[in-house]
Amino acid sequence: MTTEPVTDTDYGDVVRTHLTRVEQQNAAALDDVAELVLASVRADGMVLTAGAGHSLAAVAETFYRAGGLACVRPIYHPELLPMHGAVSSTSAERRSGLAAEVLREAGLAAHDVLFVFSTSGVNPYPVELAVLAADAGCPVVAVTSVAASALAPRRAGTTLAENATVVLDNLVPPGDATYPPANPVTAAVSTIATAFLWNLLMVRLFDKAAEAGVALPLWRSANVEGGDTANADLLRKYQTRVPQLG
């Protein structure tokens, strides 16, 4: 008997099935997070987004994005970015104390919301971000994988999910790879699943804000007619609070 090889079409099914599960299993949590963010917007707070390694791709998705929130401040350290040194970025995420340094520079208030993106959710940097923010009275949203955390070494003694106000579970399997399904060694799904979760949140937030009569500060693409003009007021409002806006 011959075994048919897994094809890239099958991989598409794997991803679509995964995203369906992510949407279904996070439905209630997404509503809770949307309420937290809406309350922050109403209080003129900031949405701070953080991650390390490839989770910084999720941070980039939240910041200065067409259709995205203008009240987002990304928080990070250059050492956490793999392009600045792949091995050193792993070391930085495992170093205790870096989270406190980054949060001091960013500032944090009770009417803000901190998002921490970390699929494994076990290294000191993401865990300490959550602990410090919670101690400061700031709500923490963990975007992580509960399954991956359960099998990863607890380098911080606890996990990101255990220190969060709300958990959004990207359902990423330990090791992140998804292909071929019988013995996965490639095609990491964490970036896709996490970006999907963030945009599911944006949809819920938009609907809740519309129902409440709250105008969200949303960027427009700079590459459409009127985009620069529409963004000018948002830049004036947030540039002093978000240094990364330049």
Can you describe what's shown?
By secondary structure, the protein is an alpha/beta fold. The chain has a single domain, classed as Rossmann fold (3-Layer(aba) Sandwich), CATH 3.40.50.10490. It contains 9 helices and 5 strands, in the order ααβαβααβαβαβαα. β3 (113-117), α6 and β4 (140-144) form a beta-alpha-beta unit. α1 (8-25) crosses α8 and α5 (98-106) crosses α6. It is globular and about 50 Å long.
Order of helices and strands: HHEHEHHEHEHEHH
| Radius of gyration, CA atoms, in whole angstroms | 18 Å
Which strand order spans the largest sheet, edge to edge or round the barrel?
Answer: 2-1-3-4-5
CATH homologous superfamily grouping: Glucose-6-phosphate isomerase like protein, domain 1
Strand content: 5-15%
Average pLDDT figure: 94
For the record, the count of structural domains works out to 1
CATH architecture: 3-Layer(aba) Sandwich
The CATH topology annotation reads as Rossmann fold
Residues in helix, % = 40-55%
Protein name: Putative phosphosugar-binding protein
InterPro entries: RpiR-like_SIS (IPR035472), SIS_dom (IPR001347), SIS_dom_sf (IPR046348), SIS_GmhA/DiaA_subfam (IPR050099)
GO molecular function: carbohydrate derivative binding
Domain SIS: 33-211
